[in-house]
Design brief:
This protein is α+β, with helices and mostly antiparallel strands. It contains twelve helices and nine strands. The chain has two domains: 121 residues, no CATH class; 162 residues, no CATH class. Strand 5 and strand 6 form a beta hairpin.
């Protein structure tokens, strides 16, 4: 789209400069001197515009994007960095401007100075006898429009191309909105059955979990998340390994055959999300090797099912799998059906997030993304 914009700008600018170009050509300036003058103009304007975009972009667009991502992800720090890709884009834009400017000026300089100053004369379009016969049967308004299109092929093509590009962006924007809306709704409404999520600042051992469960006297399920490396043949990928102590507050669906996969997992079985399975070329009943970040040895598990859960991507399993490989279950996240304040939690450093708050944050993130797309 940037190249199309540059092409239109160059074309209009050169057409307005026809009298200047014709006069310079008539008083003795060589073609090379005139071409170099306009190429230098193109380089200066494109570089100034590119540099201005590089400076303004991080001040206007980046804060919106980072603000959106910070509501969904937790990272050690958020920084704006400049990479070689930015310089590559700047150079590419300058080269495109030079090429388009040179092409436009050279086309004009093919004429003599008098014709350049007098302006462009539309050339008649040649047609086949059959086309002429068909053309004569059309009414005057249609002939008029078609004649203009055939005489100005480049402008007509750019108009069609520009309109097509705008509609592509428009459809992509609506498609992006619908896709993200579907992802958020399916995840929060179909998969998440809890009403409150608790993030502890440390891993909660078995005694503390029992104390909390006894005090609250409410359904509570614990979640442990680890970074792991999975290996399939020669391919290795870092992903998230999520372990659940229960089976009611997260509904992992794969198909009609598996209504809630967590409830049927055996000690060596895992569930893998669809995107990750496609990336690793995995299918049900395949075996996969998993290594925890603090371990050297790989453990082998069987893929029980492939889940359609949209996010987060990774591996899901029950607490039984850790018992089987003699790993301790040390969760730092709790899921509850209740949203009421629990006095027992005052002795822990914990962040409480309700289902409604997470759902609203995700919807707000969608709005921010759509604002960026519109811009």
């Amino acid at each position: 789209m940037a190249i199309v914009t540059i092409r239109f700008s160059v074309f209009r600018f050169i057409n307005k400069q026809r009298e200047v170009i014709g006069t310079l050509y008539a008083i003795g300036f060589s073609k090379i001197e005139i071409i170099n003058h306009y190429i230098f103009f193109a380089v200066i304007t494109s570089l100034l515009g590119g540099i201005l975009g590089i400076l303004i972009g991080p001040l206007l667009i980046t804060p919106i994007l980072l603000g959106t991502l910070q509501t969904q992800f937790s990272l050690p720090y958020w920084n704006v960095t400049f990479t070689y890709r930015i310089l590559f884009g700047l150079v590419l834009m300058a080269i495109s401007s030079i090429f388009l400017m040179r092409f436009s000026v050279v086309n004009i300089l093919k004429q003599n100075p008098a014709d350049i100053i007098n302006g462009e004369t539309p050339q008649s379009s040649s047609s086949h006898f059959f086309i002429n016969k068909l053309f004569n049967k059309l009414n005057f308004s249609v002939k008029w429009v078609l004649r203009d299109i055939l005489r100005h092929k480049e402008r007509s093509f750019m108009g069609v191309f520009g309109t097509a590009g705008c509609f592509i962006l428009l459809m992509s924007g609506f498609g992006l909105r619908d896709s993200i809306n579907y992802t958020i709704d399916s995840t929060f409404i179909d998969n998440f059955n809890y009403n409150q999520k608790l993030y502890f600042d440390k891993a909660i051992h078995k005694g503390e979990r029992l104390e909390i469960k006894t005090s609250v006297n409410l359904p509570i399920e614990w979640v442990q998340q680890n970074s792991v490396v999975i290996k399939q043949k020669d391919q290795k990928i870092d992903t998230l390994f999520t372990v659940f102590s229960g089976k009611d507050l997260l509904n992992l669906k794969a198909n009609e055959k598996h209504s809630n996969i967590l409830s049927s997992l055996k000690v060596n079985e895992i569930v893998i999300t669809k995107k990750l399975a496609n990336k690793m070329k995995l299918k049900e009943e395949d075996e996969i090797k998993v290594k925890f970040s603090n371990k050297i040895k790989y453990n082998t598990f069987k893929v029980k099912a492939i889940s359609s859960l949209s996010f987060p991507q990774g591996i899901y399993c029950s607490e039984k799998i850790l018992q089987n490989i003699e790993e301790p279950f040390m969760p730092s996240i709790a899921l509850l059906r209740s949203t009421e304040n629990l006095p027992i939690l005052d002795k822990f450093s914990v962040e409480k997030v309700t289902w409604e708050k997470q759902y609203k944050q995700s919807k707000n993130a969608l709005k921010s993304i759509m604002v960026v797309v519109i811009l």
